[in-house]
Amino acid sequence: MPLGKVQEIIANNKEKYLEQLFILLRQKSISTQNEGIAECAELLKKMMEEFGISTQIMQTNGHPVVYGEIIKDPNFFTLLIYGHYDVQPPEPIDDWISPPFEPTIRNGRIYCRGAGDNKGQLMAQLLGVKTYLNIFGDLPINIKFLFEGEEENGSPNLSSFVKENKELLNADLVYTADGSSHNSGSPLILLGVRGSLCLELKAKLADWDNHSGNTGNILPNPAWKLINLLQTMCNQDGQVLIEGFYDHIRPPSKHEKELLQTLPFDAEDIGNKIGYPHLHMDSETYYHKLTMEPTFNINGIQSGYTGEGIKTIIPATATVKIDARLVVDQDPMDIYNKICQHVQQHDPDIEVTYLSSMEPSRTSADLEIVKVVTNAIHHAYQQEPLIQPSLGGSLPDYVWTKILEVPSIIMPYANFDQKNHSPNENIEIDYFLNGIKCTCHVIHELGKHAKKLSNEVYIK
């Protein structure tokens, strides 16, 4: 049966495939609260085994990894599929139209926590493998699977797990379905991610909150103390003023610049989809800032009383949480040390606390394997995919490119407006089904590529 039949097979199994996804979605797996994690890992293992994948649950210093494999021949080309089974907390619950852990279909979309990030995309990969096996009865390559339970918590144990299991995880390519498709709706290939550094700044002055009249002009305010420091760290144009912050940034190659220039851009459409209709930016600036520049972002500020009405106090403490998205070749710990030095220079009384970090990563767009996967995606969608050198967000992509030292390609299967991490997270049914089809095409094209390589070796 030719690969062209894949669409028909998916259509015939649509309801069954949706129900298998719903089973996984109903199982809570909130990593930051350790709710349902072990149960979800067991459920995922059972599903994978039913699909013919040899599967085991492997422990880490945190939540477990679900590892599986279908090994045709140890010497064959090996694809490693990565994803995560953990999800974000559902709060605020009242903002959900339907219960966050009961998959509900409305207007062609599946609404549920994890629908887009990442259970829907993870299941599309697994069902793609299952569908391919149903068509051909065998795989043309080896496939390994690694699904972690801590991605939404910053993947704190993934790098050590990969280091300890490099031989087990040895592969020729890592393929991830995560993130959002391009806002234009075109298929999108991502060749890297920005890294991240999360930290907290805290100013503490008095031992308790004080009356703002009785101690006004006497007791300094920690909120102003933090604000004054923040103004030395970033100006009104968004330029970071911390010495050395922009050091070691790898400039985009000529090819990468060309790829960015081919990406569609509609400022009004993007603005409406992100809830900011005042977006005024040209294409070149937008994509350069999104992929090639680091950020210095305030997540939140907390100090004093912010409830209804007024409480006239001088707060005792003020706290700000910051995340910086970093680009190749910035080192998160180098940036953290520079921030600490900046604080020491401008206000040493303020306490700096490291929270988490993730290294940036990028795979060269010039590699032959990138062209192979691009061709597969083109066939799957009957549309030339867009290629973006880097994702604006962060994934633990560096564990593949820097620890396993193999190329890594990210192909988002979820719609741009999936509302991941927010109430009413969703995935369009067509995007989910297309992800299954795309996975089949990627496997098939990699099989042809592997056969070509083996023939070349034989001729030599």
From TrEMBL:
Single Gene Ontology BP annotation: proteolysis
Location of the Peptidase M20 dimerisation domain: 195-349
Kindly provide the name given to this protein in its UniProt entry.
Answer: M20/M25/M40 family metallo-hydrolase
Q: Does the record carry Protease as a key word?
A: yes
Coiled coil, from the record: none
Organism whose genome encodes this protein: Cytobacillus depressus
> PANTHER family, per this entry?
BETA-ALA-HIS DIPEPTIDASE, DI- AND TRIPEPTIDASE DUG2-RELATED
Pfam families annotated for this entry? M20_dimer, Peptidase_M20
Please name the GO terms that the record assigns under molecular function: metal ion binding; peptidase activity
Q: Which Gene3D superfamilies match?
A: 3.30.70.360, Zn peptidases
Sorted alphabetically, which InterPro entries does this protein's record hold?
Answer: Cyt/Met_Dipeptidase (IPR051458), Peptidase_M20 (IPR002933), Peptidase_M20_dimer (IPR011650)
**Sorted UniProt keywords:** Hydrolase, Metal-binding, Protease
Q: Which domain of life is it from?
A: Bacteria
